[in-house]
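Hi team,

Below is the intake form for RES domain-containing protein from Subtercola lobariae. Please confirm the fields before the structure is written into the shared record.

FORM ID: S-0412
PROTEIN: RES domain-containing protein
ORGANISM: Subtercola lobariae
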Amino acid sequence: MTASERMPSFDPPAPAALVALGADVRTVMPAQPLWRIHFTAGRYPQAWNGVRTWGPLASARWDAHPLPEGEHPEHGAAYLAFDVVTCLAEVFQATRFVDVHTGSPYITLCEFSRPLKLVDVSGDWLLKAGARSSIAFGKKSRTRAWARAIRQAWPDVDGVLSRSAVAGAHECVTLWSTADAADAGSVADAGSVASAGSVAGVADAGSAADAAGSRAVATFSGAPLSSNPLSSPAIAPNIKAAAESITFSSNCI
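The structure came back. Fields below:
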């Protein structure tokens, strides 16, 4: 084997090669709630149980939408986390400023109607697949290429579990709207995800209104555990404290 053949690759192998390798899979059980921040106004509004079907976006790390960017009804994506701090870090990473007004963002705590099967890219699976594990934190065009390859290899998986590229000690979930595929590679369970802490005091104030430009998916449970405008005075102290814990500023009042 030559030195060049031993060099890790930035590009994913063919889907068939991934199926032959097998996936490291984590399972999020229905009893494990996840947080998400979703915008109910602006260019890509989403309901609390919606996925964004327009993509892939240059700003989105694990979008599995096929190229070119556009409307792909069968390829939605939603980004979630196990705690509020990670949601804030991911959504507002570009400015480090938590804007609770623009786009009418909501903070929602979700449950799911069934276990979520997620390809785990938080460990050494990318290395086993011939890449560097560090690509998970690198160029988003590369991680999107891996997302597309993973989805082509296993169309029945629900998404990926990754480390936050901003808050590296925290894990994130990218949920995809799954497609039926008779010839999909089988994915075995490799353990469940433990519960993580969340910001206290985020009270239920009703769910966000249905939004155009997204598609509701049955993977979500019938109603959110809580769903509040990020600007709600009831949660402002907790959102401000969460932002300050990662040295983000905010316009919480």
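SUMMARY LINE: The radius of gyration is 18 Å.

Thanks, M.
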